[in-house]
Amino acid sequence: MKPYILSIDQGTTSSRAILVDHDGKIIDIAQQEFEQLFPQSGWVEHDPMEIWSSQLAVITSVIAKSKIRSADIHAIGITNQRETTIVWDRKTGKPIYPAIVWQDRRTADYCDELKEKGLEDTVRDKTGLLIDSYFSATKIKWILDEVDGALERAKAGELAFGTVDSWLIWNLTNGELHLTDITNASRTMLFNIHSCEWDSELLELFGIPEAILPEVKSSSEIYGETSVDVLKTAIPIAGIAGDQQSALFGQLCIEKGMVKNTYGTGCFMLMNTGSKAIKSEHKLVTTIAWKIGDEVTYALEGSVFIAGAVVQWLRDGLGLIKKSKDVTSLAKKVADTGGVYIVPAFAGLGAPHWDARARGSVYGITRGTTDAHLARACLESIAFQTYDVLEAMQHDAGHAIEELRVDGGATSNSVLLKFQATLLGATVVRPENTETTAMGAAYLAGLATGFWKDIAEVQQKWSVDKRIEPEKDIDSTAALKEWHAAVEATKVWATLKNKKS
Ligand SMILES: Nc1ncnc2c1ncn2[C@@H]1O[C@H](COP(=O)(O)OP(=O)(O)O)[C@@H](O)[C@H]1O
Ligand SMILES: O=P(O)(O)OC[C@H](O)CO
User: Fold this and answer.
1) Omega before 236 within 30 of 0, i.e. cis
2) Residue 363: which CATH number?
3) How many separate domains does the chain show?
């Protein structure tokens, strides 16, 4: 057997390639950030060609760095930022428009129209999702409506739509494969999560021709091989999952009731609900966790749009820190936020509010407020948002969640994790291997190709690095009350600002 699995992790802010050995140990990682484009307020785009070139660059670099040959790679697993929408020309392989990123709010008005027409229940019942510009459907519609001739070309079968997984596979196979996996499909708002197929009624509602859609596959099977023109060797592509589902699998949350929270650009909390698609009563979404063989596993998800990104804003927008990790030393200069609250609704608010028009707000600043207070308030905002999602999830689950497995770039921050545990009154568990997103895709690919025998074998590869217990003598009641007041004020401001006179 060849010794390595290559996991491709195409995230919102960076492309990564990770080599994993049979013990589940990471041999090497290569990572490259790429440009975030903000052409208008509420719009977020990526250049699909840069997504691909940065991804290919890190694959090549991790192979070179670790001094292996591509022929040593047993299989490839792919995981990706979800919902982000790319439409390309099947003949030239060139995108017809930039990638519209999951955070993009340009279709918020259209989503409101759909809600006013009373379509929320239909969409919810079929897709498990709430109507929101977050999901791919309205982004595809926007591209087909706005790009000259796109709709006609789509109808004629000349165009292809894909989330980032499809785009990478198309390029890795030199245009041979146009497919996606069921977890990514479940984020489009076009996929029926019960019958597990594209929903013709929804396609008609959004005016999206079926001809542009990828074929939907399971999350763990051999889909095809990379083209020798791209990676010199034909390597089986054998695992695909959206990054949050991949992290759930990588955290080995494989039993019903297990929960993980990933702190990346946003925060995404998922609870494995087994073979049942549970409908949330608290504005969480129902999604597909994975399909292995014929078995579909579902999850409840709470998506927070801005988490680690608030730290990037401190770095790139305000220039208060040079590197993301510097937020810790800055925040540690003060014992508390001095009554400052930041609601980082830069791209609207996701779960459990779903307010596309909300925008970021800062409350409680005084003449004495410093950069350190702002830094601390930014970190705390990540934890407060997670608190609100966990509350919703506990209500849906009908029981308290005592332990939260965490991962993602921002979990290197000990100040954040301690504050989080205290706020939740629950133990926060960080695994030794925090690359859980990449590990999920690696496991899915390894299971499909016999690299690992079964899930039980994979399960042994998860181990705890740190258990962070809540600070017993801190009462968070007052802070939570003030946070919730800040969130309410943010929502009220959005309503007043957008009120039609
Ligand atoms: N020490 C830190 N404290 C808080 N946030 C951090 C820290 N280091 C990185 N981050 C944040 O983590 C995010 C990157 O995490 P990652 O899991 O790679 O995200 P993504 O997959 O969304 O690109 C960035 O938004 C960055 O600002
Ligand atoms: O790339 P991440 O880690 O920010 O994850 C983005 C999510 O998949 C969006 O739904």
Assistant:
1) no
2) 3.30.420.40
3) 2
| Together in a domain, 209 and 262 | no
User: Both 201 and 337 in a single domain?
Assistant: no
Q: 132: which 2 tokens?
A: 């929101």
- Using the atom order of ligand 2, give the atom closest to the CA of residue 12: 1
Q: Is 385 annotated as a binding residue?
A: no
**Segments of the chain with pLDDT less than 70:** 500-501
The ligand whose atoms approach the alpha carbon of 15 most closely is: 1
Angle value at C-alpha 316, between 311 and 320, nearest 5 degrees: 70
Q: Which atom of ligand 1 is nearest to the CA of 311?
A: 27
| Residue (of 282, 291, 288) closest to 270 by Cα position | 288
Residue 501 is predicted with a pLDDT of 61
Q: Note whether 183 and 107 are same-domain residues.
A: yes
Taken as a whole, the chain contains a residue count of: 501
Give the Å distance between the CA of 411 and the centre of ligand 1. 8
Question: Is the ipTM beyond the 0.95 threshold?
Answer: yes
pLDDT at residue number 403: 85
The verdict on 281 and 422 lying in the same domain is yes
pLDDT at residue number 153: 97
Residue 243 lies inside a defined structural domain of this protein: no
Residue 324 · residue 342 · CB < 8 Å: no
Tell me if 130 is assigned to some domain: yes
Residue range of the domain that includes 213: 4-217
> Which residue's CA is minimally distant from atom 11 of ligand 1?
308
What is the Å distance from ligand 2's center to 266 Cα? 7
